[in-house]
Amino acid sequence: MSSRLFIVDAFTDRPFAGNPAGVCFPAQDRDDRWLQNVAREMNLSETAFLWGGPTAWRLRWFTPTVEMDLCGHATLASAHAIWEAGLAEPGALLTFATRSGELSAGGRPGAIEMDFPAVPAVSAAAPPDLLAAVGVAASSCRFTGRNRIDWLLEIESEAALRALAPDFRKLSAATQPDRGVIVTARSESPAFDFVSRFFAPAAGIDEDPVTGSAHCGLGPYWAARLGKTSLKGFQASARGGTVGVAVRESGRITLSGAAVTVSRGELL
Question: Is there a single domain that holds both residue 86 and residue 158?
Answer without folding.
Answer: no
